[in-house]
Amino acid sequence: MSLGKKIFFLLIALIILIAYTVSTFNYKTILSKSENQATSFSSEDSMFGEYADLVVLKVNELKSSILKNLGLDKDDKLGQNKESIALELLKDNGIVLMNGTFKDATQAKSIVDLLNINRNGEYLFEENRVIDVVLLNKLSLLMDSFKEFFTDGSKLSIENGKVLLNGELKDSNFKPLLDSIIAKSNLDIISNIKEPIKSKTEKIIDDFKKTSAVVEKELTSESENKLNKLENITPKKEVIEAKSKFVQDAQDSINDLTSNNKITFKRRSTNITDESQETVKKIATILLDDSRLTVEVAGHTDSRGRASLNKRISQDRANSVKNALAELGVDSKRMKAIGYGEDFPIAKDDAQGLSEVNRRVEFIVGEIK
């Protein structure tokens, strides 16, 4: 007989053997034997014993699934399935407290050591509880972040084999870093994470940054369009210099004036002092020298008193300076007055909220569009 025929007959015999094995296989008997063999590991207290318990848990879950799919009845022994531990880590007064349901005190202590828990809480012990060692090792990678990033009252827990994270971050800047750590740990987390509410000052700074970025983009686009139209008449470099020089010169002149002669007001009043009237006259002269110039009169205060009152005072004083410039001949359409109150300090106030430096009027020079 040739070699080819021998191989052919061997394949036929193998197929017949596989078909016979499948047709005579008793799922229920095999699963029952598997359970009796697997549960013999449950008495081990070592780390190997924990892994064995985990295997038992997974095998029992598989058995239940197979029996359900095959339509077979569950026997009484399947009611003895192992269950995963229940674990809750609570942030309290800057430390982490652990509550949960475990197999015994030895198992609970092994988790405390692995996760570096600060304090023991309330424990319940049930014989059928097992550790998912892989899950706990992944969870340990998150512990430092949980301790450092989250406020008191935040919780990290394991329920029915799932990891849940609920809490509030101390700083919204921690969020990207936390997301990166979770991704690297390969943890499947159900999270409900709140970010801290920003203070009024932080919101103003954020809004100012966003507005500045938008304005800068708009100005850049508008400038480029104008320059494109003028490209055939004047070189680009010369246009930029012609556009910015007269504004910058005026701004520098006004800054020099106000640095040595600060705009001041009569006590408990929005009326400009006689000394400052002379400074306002010189500023008016600068603005009248070039009709293309515009100016924003910005009023500022320190933080003493109510914020709403400071805002009103700064607005009234800015209006007072604007009106004085208008009386000196500067077109009111080229001016605007804005009171910012205590929102934009340039120096730190003292304990009473007082700062001579922060009580000021600024002049921001621009050009007519």
UniProtKB/TrEMBL annotation:
Q: Which residues form the OmpA-like domain?
A: 252-369
Q: Return the InterPro entries for the record.
A: Bact_OuterMem_StrucFunc, OMP_bac, OmpA-like, OmpA-like_sf
The UniProt entry, under Pfam families, shows: OmpA (PF00691)
Record keywords: Cell outer membrane, Membrane
Is Membrane among the key words of this record? Answer: yes
Query: Quick check: keyword Secreted in the entry?
Result: no
The cellular component terms of Gene Ontology attached to this UniProt record, alphabetical and capped at eight, are: cell outer membrane
Coiled-coil segments = none
Subcellular locations according to the entry: Cell outer membrane
Q: Which domain of life is it from?
A: Bacteria
Note the PANTHER family from the entry.
Answer: LIPOPROTEIN YIAD-RELATED (PTHR30329:SF21), STATOR ELEMENT OF FLAGELLAR MOTOR COMPLEX (PTHR30329)
Q: What is this protein called?
A: OmpA family protein
Taxonomy of origin reads: Bacteria, Pseudomonadati, Campylobacterota, Epsilonproteobacteria, Campylobacterales
